[in-house]
Amino acid sequence: MAELGAISLWIALALAAYSTIGSVAGKLRLSPALVESAQTAMYAAGLALLVATLSLVVAFISRDFEIAYVAAHSDLAMPNRFTWVAFYAGNEGSLLYIATTLAIMSAIAVWRCPEKFKDALPYTTAVLMLTLTFFLAVTAVMANPFDKLPFVPLDGEGINPLLTHFGMFFHPPALMAGLIGITVPFAFAIGSLLAGKTGDEWVDAGRVWGMVSWVLLAGGLLLGSWWAYTILGWGGFWFWDPVENAAFMPWLGITAFIHSIMVQKRRGMFRMWNIVLINVAFGLALYGMFMNRGGSVPSVHSFGASQLGWVFLMFLAIGVVVPFAIFIWRYPLLKSARNLDSMLSREAAFLVNNMLLLAIAFVTLWGTVYPLISRLTNDEEITIARPFYDQVNGPLMLGLIFLMGIGPLIPWRKAGLATLRKTLLPPAVAGLATVAVLAILGLHKEYALIAFGLASFVTGGILMEWYRGTRSRHRSSGENYAIAFLQLIAANRPRYGGYIVHLSIIMVTLGIVGTSFFSIQRDVVLSPGESTVVGDYELVFLGTLETPKSNRIEFESTVQVFRGGDLLDTIRTKRAFYPSFNMASTNAAIRSTPVEDLYIVPSENLPDGSVGFRILVNPLIWWMWVAGPVMVLGTVIALWPQKVRAPAPVPTPRRFAPGPRPSAA
Amino acid sequence: MALPPARAIFVLLILSAFGVSVATQTGRLHAQTPEPESSQGEAGFSESEAQGIDRMIMCPVCPAETIDQAQVQIALQMRAVVREMLADGKERKEILDFFVERYGQDILGAPPKSGAALVAWLLPAGGVLAAIVAVFFIIRSMTRHATVLATPRLVPDPGLVPYLQLVDRHLEMSRGGPRTGGTSDPPGPAVESSGTEASDQTDPTGTDEKE
């Protein structure tokens, strides 16, 4: 198994390298045969990597402890389904996963390449395969998952208990796929530049693959937050940890990209800016992968292995400098088809959207990097954590929400003030009314008021658009409202998919605002039979059941939840102690409703039978998790291929005289 | 400003939907926002005040966690110290200074807004402000540029006239009838965007056209 895997890995590396060189050489020497063989090599590399992946999976299932990676991340007691997580638990496996994902995405992207881009495709292939070559080289040479131990251990070290949670089956693969996925729109952009194309041929593929990596990153980030919330045991979901930030920044970049690429698709504008933007997003993605593999900042995510860090840093430097050099070289070709007609237009709104997103990314980057700078320059140790980001990123995000309300409602090209007033008035009224209602009900935290008001504003605008569209469709086609609405979505997939995604962002906002401003937290030690009051709930601790298991001791504590004298629920919370890792993991008991979560987690089990509990009431957090599937649904709708009807020539009625002709002069 | 009846009703519907849903939630929120147990009278401080201070102090041994979040022994001890000091009547600033004295500046979750560390706040704030100003001027210059370019396009070069007429005739033939305007129109999207598209189209009449 190890041999098969290792050989496949090296073969894939050779094929990727050949594909890179062959694509460029074939294009320069005008040899279609060379180009085609390079493309075939790309597909073959993907196949070889699938073989390598399968070999590693089989090695895990058969518990081949001679392979160092298998011994480090599994043991005889591990159930087979955890092979999935064990695969990417360490550097070696996760690099193999990234390489395989890149190979598959490249193959699909090249296979589905739009016709009009075909002559620039070899350059895109070269960029994709160059990146793959880098990852495979690093994997094969420095972090080979198939390296063997000099002896065969009797048992492995077992899988990290934190990884055995449901969320861990999806968070790392989604996030890694999202990060490496940014390579695809990037490759299309660079391919277009290298081929000397002046137009927008790459935009369709760029948009599709930009959105694919966007949803993967968004899903990965949400899943990571959900995992942190349910398993890390402090009731929060975001650390502003350097590695979290490192995934957040490329997500911001690719969000900016998928918005401004719409302008290029529709109006042929922002050609230069979009190249710059995708370069920045790709650079941030490389930085993200660097942080994960040897960044010098400690975090819950660090894989360690500092030599890998240097290699990634070099590739990051090349991956930023070279594309910008190419951009500057091709700069004269990138004139936009048109210019901005008005400052009050959707195009301008998209520019502001980009600016806000990049500002948030910049602040996050600054917050991540400043402690290092401060330590190096004036020897002062500074921490930048949540309090900083709340104060600086908070207002920027509120601005973004505001823009999310205006953007879809503002017309392209030029918005007349009268039109704007008409369109924006109902949502604005909804927003202000919400603020008024909340203030009257006693809510006085300014940020929360503004945030809820803006959430109403955005949602009101979206619902208004849905209502208008459905009504006019109902009037013109006679369909009933329900069918009209569904047909409306089907006929305008990118737009309505976008609306649904915006709604999911509002849901996330609700979750963040609810927990940030209205959480109640109590730490209390209870002995069996004791009760405590948190918020409206009365909690009675019944007792703990201690169960020794194969690799851990489990403490299951049962708590009864009362409200107003009525028993709402009996919940069980678990805490497991792993002696071999000297680590404890907790399964919080969460009673979740759309209004709030009751969150109970045991922080310590004392010898006398009493348990230290942390109890949290987290309002509105349910909305944040529900937003995930809504976001995916919206993206799928937006990406669903829609037949673009070719413009049909309409003969002008004879009674209208044609316009002035030069011949009349 | 009077709204048409349909729109007014729609606005009212949105308002009531939001009002009802939010009101039911804030009913709970309102019940929860005032201080829970251990209120001002008993121990001399409020729990949420203590938690607020907890959120500003980092746990010295955990990566990127405040003592409010961390569950390790030292974090629990530090939380107890915060509450002791609050009960003693110490102010928030005194408590934070106490920890800074013992652990160094980096025990705080955010840099102080004074001294050398002020640059940590000024740079992002300044950067964002600069970006806003830049975007404003960029948008403005892009729109100015548009009005400058618009005018010359209205008058086609007289030397091109015979060619434009030829193109008009070809267009008429391929589209089955005269249409308003024609190539005497300002050259718009059809000519400028996606260079390859125009050249990909085959000319039905077989003659070459200058574009």
Report on the architecture of this protein.
- The complex is a heterodimer of chains A (665) and B (211).
- Chain A has 665 residues and is of the alpha+beta class.
- Chain A is built from 19 helices and nine strands.
- In chain A, the strands form two sheets. Chain A has a five-stranded antiparallel sheet, with no helix packed on it.
- In chain A, strand 8 and strand 9 form a beta hairpin.
- The N and C termini of chain A lie far apart (83 Å).
- The mean pLDDT of chain A is 88.
- With 211 residues, chain B is an all-alpha fold.
- The longest helix of chain B is centred in the middle third of the chain and has 36 residues.
- The chains are: A alpha+beta (665), B mainly alpha (211).
Strand and helix map with partners:
The complex is a heterodimer of chains A (665) and B (211).
Chain A: H1 2-28, H2 32-61, H3 68-73, H4 83-87, H5 91-111, H6 121-142, H7 171-181, H8 183-194, H9 203-231, H10 242-267, H11 271-292, H12 306-330, H13 346-377, H14 386-406, H15 417-440, H16 446-477, H17 481-491, H18 493-518, E1 520-526, E2 531-534, E3 537-548, E4 553-563, E5 566-578, E6 583-587, E7 589-592, E8 596-605, E9 611-619, H19 621-639
Antiparallel strand pairs in A: 1-9, 2-3, 3-4, 4-5, 5-6, 7-8, 8-9
Helix pairs in contact in A: 1-2, 1-6, 2-5, 5-6, 5-7, 6-8, 7-9, 8-9, 8-11, 9-10, 9-19, 10-11, 10-13, 11-12, 13-14, 14-16, 15-16, 16-17, 16-18, 17-18, 18-19
Chain B: H1 5-32, H2 40-43, H3 47-54, H4 73-87, H5 92-103, H6 118-153, H7 161-175, H8 189-192, H9 195-200
Helix pairs in contact in B: 3-4
Uncertain stretches of chain B: 24-42, 181-211
Label the overall shape of chain B: elongated
How are strands sequenced across the largest beta sheet of chain A? 2-3-4-5-6
How far apart, in Å, are the first and last alpha carbons of chain A? Answer: 83 Å
Tally the beta strands of chain B: 0
Spatial extent as radius of gyration of chain B = 35 Å
Low-pLDDT ranges of chain A: none
Number of helices of chain B: 9
| Total E-strand runs of chain A | 9
For the largest interface, the chains and their residue counts are: A-B, 97 and 90 residues
Number of helices of chain A: 19
Helical content band of chain B: 55-70%
Can you write the helix and strand succession of chain B as a string?
A: HHHHHHHHH
The secondary-structure class of chain B comes to mainly alpha
Note the quaternary state here. heterodimer
